[in-house]
Amino acid sequence: MDGEAIVVEGAESELRYTPRLIQHNGVDIAHESRGGSLSAVWVGQVGEFFVEVVHLGDGPEGGELVMTVTAPDLPDVRPMVALGDLFQREVPMAVNPSWPVAVDLALGLLTHATVILSVDGEPITKDDVEAFHQQLLGVLYA
């Protein structure tokens, strides 16, 4: 973590992640709803790490990006998923209908061994994400 950004570093490259904007070696990768060209997926190698950035759907603000980081050649390194704004510590009073769908898709990226980071960079569990998903559905269908 570097302030509000998650940084993945390799020998000759760097990726800086925030929920709606990624920078790879200083070049912006943003969702098209935020003025970028990414519509669904960006994939790259950063040192020993394989990185995927995906737009699973809009969350509270739209254009949220989820990042997965794996190290296939380093078996002791646990996979990491950064959920950005898709996970919130507090359940909002109103929910965009696409938000629970995006969280449901994100759940498919998670196992109980995955290191999961929220927008504040603090680790959360798959159980936390599942509970939040149910809370979103409760607000949407109340």
Give an account of the 3D structure.
- This protein is of the alpha+beta class and 142 residues long.
- The model has no long low-confidence stretch (mean pLDDT 89).
- It has a single domain (6-140), classed as Metallo-beta-lactamase, Chain A, CATH 3.60.15.
- It is built from two helices and ten strands.
- The longest helix has 15 residues, at 126-140.
- It has helices at residues 98-107, 126-140, and strands at 6-9, 14-18, 21-24, 27-30, 41-46, 49-54, 66-70, 80-82, 115-117, 123-124.
Number of strands: 10
The strand line-up of the biggest sheet is 5-6-7-8-9-10
Instruction: Give the overall shape, derived from the CA principal axes.
Output: globular
CATH superfamily heading: Ribonuclease Z/Hydroxyacylglutathione hydrolase-like
* SS-derived structural category: alpha+beta
Low-confidence stretches: none
Portion of residues in beta strands equals: 25-35%
